[in-house]
Amino acid sequence: MSDRGDHQVSEQIAAVKLTAITKRFGSVVAVDNVDLEIADGEFFALLGPSGCGKTTTLRMVAGLEFPTEGSLKIFGDEAGTLPPNKRPVNTVFQDYALFPHMTVEANVAFGLKMQRVAKQEIAGRVQEAISLVRLEGLEQRRSQQLSGGQRQRVALARALVNRPKVLLLDEPLGALDLKLRQEMQGELKALQREVGITFVFVTHDQEEALTMADRIGVMNEGELLQVGTPAEIYEHPVNRFVANFIGQTNLLDASVVSNDTVCLANGVHIPGKSDLPVGTRVAVCLRPERAGMHPPEEVPPDQQSVVGRLESVTYLGNALVYTVVLDWARLEVRRENQPGGYRPHVGEEVAVSWTLDAISVVRA
Amino acid sequence: MSSTVQPRGTTKIALTAHSWLVYLFFFAPIFVLIVFSFSDDRNVGRWGGFTLEWYQDFVEHSQLQNAVWVSVRVALLSTVISVVLGTLAALALERFKFRGRKVFDALLYLPIIIPDVTMAVMMLLFFAEFFDILESVFGWDAQKGLGSITISHIAFNISFVSVVVRARLAGMSEVLEEAALDLYATRWKTFRYVTFPQIVPGVAGGALLALTLSLDDVVITQFAAGPGATTLPVFVFGLIRRGVTPLINATSVLMLTASVILVALSLAFQQFSGRGGRPSLRAARQAVSAPPTTNTQIKEGIYQ
User: What are the domain boundaries of chain B?
Assistant: First the structure.
């Protein structure tokens, strides 16, 4: 019994735990009262626009900034004001920050050398890390002689060779071009599974966060707005900002009438679940790919709809995006480019429709 | 390929002639100096046939030799001290925020801006007062000499060193230092293994500049020197008053040679990393600008 209890406790200790963390730079509040728990082994993304405080949060975990207020624990140990060289975390910096006067090998060995690991062990572990990121044969190169993707691998090896308990990555793919970025997304995820340690990465690219992360924390203006799995965040954003920031979306102004009805801005009551108080101003979030489109008189009976005029059609190849204008809103509908089906012309009256499970009601 | 921006015709001829005139203006006196240092005639302006007599005189002149050694010792000592202090000042100004930083920054430039004579008078007054205090408090009767010259050279060299080192530091990303700290380096080890190797060209350039300035200085040294010791340029200056012989030409040629070598080394050091970095940067850019086309090529590119 007690064995099992201990085991449970150790499982419950968060890799990183922020409690009421605030960081101020002079009068500027960079991070505002953030609570966050990141579990051991998790691939966690901090997502937000530039200046939202995500990088400052990461830097506080790394020890490169100290929190103004609050508690920061790494595997249960208070680390708020520990210097970076005393923390069991390592960082992959945005532009990799490889030491230009050292070879790849010396860069990777640096952390072990500073920890006074025995020379023989260093050699073995450096080789291991270099082969983990598949850089064999480049040991004697300098960072200027490497491509962007290779530098990123060196930065990863240089951090992972120390076997940190948490790996922090600051916009790890930001400096790479699109194709390479997509390749590396898969690579990073595979690497994280292989080494099994907690990865916390910062990105402003919502697609990157959705693709790679187990859970995402969305930040804006220093506040942590929502934490959840990619599906939770995409399908049930907590507010207008999150809904807008993650993917494309249509937001219809509305207010809460009851816990399963909202009143749209045009006065029509539609079903919409929320636990917000009656009268709260909200937005109905309807993703373009979840919206249907029909001639006004042919809307299926189980669907809600609004009627507007088709303003334009954007041809994307694999899909078409229809822009429908109402006198109080503007909606985008995305349809897969499949043969047959309803193809209205610009200027026609169309109904944009949805089923109850296609929408979510978010705070405005 | 000549672009339309390039001068043509008479403009080109006039510009070329102008640059030759400038060079003539610069180098003719030096040429004359060098030629007459080999002249076998006591009169400095008259050619009396080739001789190395004056260079031999230079080697055998005990007071001159004395002055050379004072110069060398002052230069080395003041360079070492001002490089340490100047580098520390540069680090403080470039890396740390502290109260009075801007004032310190402005004051540090002062020795570069103020005229040598002003600085010299300041030194003279300073040493007079300082030695008075030494005598009245400790009963130590200090004299101007090697020590006072060295101190006055340190005073102006710190500024030059810190300016050169700062330029180098400003070009170095602070992130490298953060990376070192993140990789378990202490602050000292971060400096030792990351910051210092990065700024070495600046430090070396600053050191050679300081060495040159110290070896060449006349005005400030003259006020800080005492009966005990004097530097080569100051001694030569004194010799001139007693009549100019080709000995002075020979001495000047040797000083000139030493200065040119030091300045050339200083420039070479400051550009050192630039030259080292650029070709490889070009290679990296080439690698990026010729993107692989197929998927396998991309993979090969990454895994190589």
Answer: 64-241+248-271
Report the alpha-carbon distance of residue B212 to residue B265 in Å, rounded: 11
Please tell me the CATH superfamily of domain A13-235, with its number.
P-loop containing nucleotide triphosphate hydrolases (3.40.50.300)
Minimal Cα distance from A183: which residue of B?
A: B299
Q: Taking CB atoms and an 8 Å cutoff, what residues of chain A touch B189?
A: 114
Cβ distance A330 to A248 under 8 Å? Answer: no
Q: Is B243 left (phi over 0), alpha (psi -120 to 50) or beta?
A: left
Q: Distance of CA A39 to CAs A107, A215, B40, B266, Å?
A: 30, 10, 90, 55
Report the candidate in A352, A353, A347, A336 with the shortest Cα–Cα distance to residue A312: A347
Domain with CATH 2.40.50.140 in chain A: 248-363
Structure confidence by residue, pLDDT tens digits, A44-98:
999 999 989 999 999 999 999 999 999 999 999 999 889 999 999 999 999 899 9
- What number is the ipTM of this complex? 0.83
How far does B173 lie from chain A, in Å, by closest CA? 8
Give the tokens for residue B91. Answer: 């680090």
Measure the CA–CA gap between B157 and B76, rounded to whole angstroms.
12
- Edge to edge, what strands does the sheet with A349-354 contain? A292-294, A349-354, A304-315, A319-325, A330-336
Query: What pLDDT is attached to residue B2?
Result: 58
Give the CATH superfamily of B64-241+248-271.
MetI-like (1.10.3720.10)
- Minimal CA separation from A145 to chain B, in Å: 6
Rounded distance between C-alpha atoms, residue A306 and residue A292, angstroms: 11
Q: Tens digit of pLDDT for each residue in B65-97?
A: 888 899 999 999 999 999 999 999 999 998 888
For domain A248-363, the CATH architecture is Beta Barrel (2.40)
Residue from the list B176, B277, B298 with its beta carbon closest to the beta carbon of A97: B176
Between chain A and chain B, the number of residue pairs with CB atoms below 8 A apart is 93
Res B298: pLDDT: 34
Assign B68 to helix, strand or coil.
Answer: helix
